[in-house]
Amino acid sequence: MNPAGLSEQVRRSWAIAKKDIRIYYMKGPVLIFGVFMPLFMFLAFLMGGRQLPLSFLISGLVGMTLFFTATAVSPAIFPWEGSAKTLERLASCPVTVEAIVLGDMIASLLFGIGITLITVLIGFALGLPLLHGLTLLSAIVIAAICFSAVGMLLAVPPTNTPSNIMMLSSLVKFPLVFISGIFVPLEQMPFWGIVLSVISPLTYFTDLVRYSFTGTHFFPVWADLMALAVFTLAITAITMVLHKKTMPKRM
């Protein structure tokens, strides 16, 4: 049993997060899947010839950016550390599996928030007004935690090959982007599209971003926030439990 208390484990999580920030932020797959992928998808959508308002486009860009960046770091850390045999060294330290996962999540969500704030500033530079700043800030923080937990959930399969996890990650993330109202407004989706969109936490974040910039929303604001919070708690809890089971298989 680990003798360290909760506060000590949190402090060690922060130390793990700082280690991740130094080592993994500038890795090629992180930059490609976290920064360039949402940018290229946005440009492709922008040049697609559809006459959509700037507020819709920037809101979609903010949603995509946070989703891709917050899920870019966390899935690959365990495979990278497993292949480098540094995960065994970390696991032999007096730190719990939950603290390791939390540290990776912190590094991931900080990366997501930092890059996303740049896209928000781009919106300001293009003249987009911010109507509900507190809602936007709350949504970004909660969604960043949620998406970083999604990233750690994708890292559950006990493989030490990063490309396997990146393929699985793409297989899950791209469908979620297409059903979350980023490219097609929820109001224009068929009924089955609305049903699918409900299962994606990105749907609620995108709806909150659009509300923050335009004042319009599809779901009630309180429902968006509540759904994001529930997704965050549920995915984080499931991720912690599954990593405790699969961690020994990585050694």
Explain what the structure shows:
The protein is mainly α and 251 residues long. It is built from eleven helices and no strands. The chain has helices spanning 6-24, 28-46, 54-70, 74-83, 86-91, 97-125, 133-154, 162-178, 191-197, 201-214, 221-250. Helix 2 (28-46) runs antiparallel to helix 3 (54-70), helix 3 packs antiparallel against helix 6 and helix 6 packs across helix 7 (133-154). The longest helix has 30 residues, at 221-250. The model has no long low-confidence stretch (mean pLDDT 85).
Quick structural overview:
This protein is mainly α.
Uncertain spans, ≥5 residues at pLDDT below 50? none
The largest sheet, given as strand count, sense and whether it forms a barrel, is: none
Instruction: Give me the strand/helix succession.
Output: HHHHHHHHHHH
Count every helix, treating DSSP H or I runs of 4 or more residues as helices.
11
Estimate percent helicity. over 70%
Globally, the shape reads elongated
How many strands appear in the DSSP assignment? 0
Structural class: mainly alpha
Which whole number gives the mean pLDDT?
85
Radius of gyration: 18 Å
Strand content: under 5%
Span between termini: 19 Å
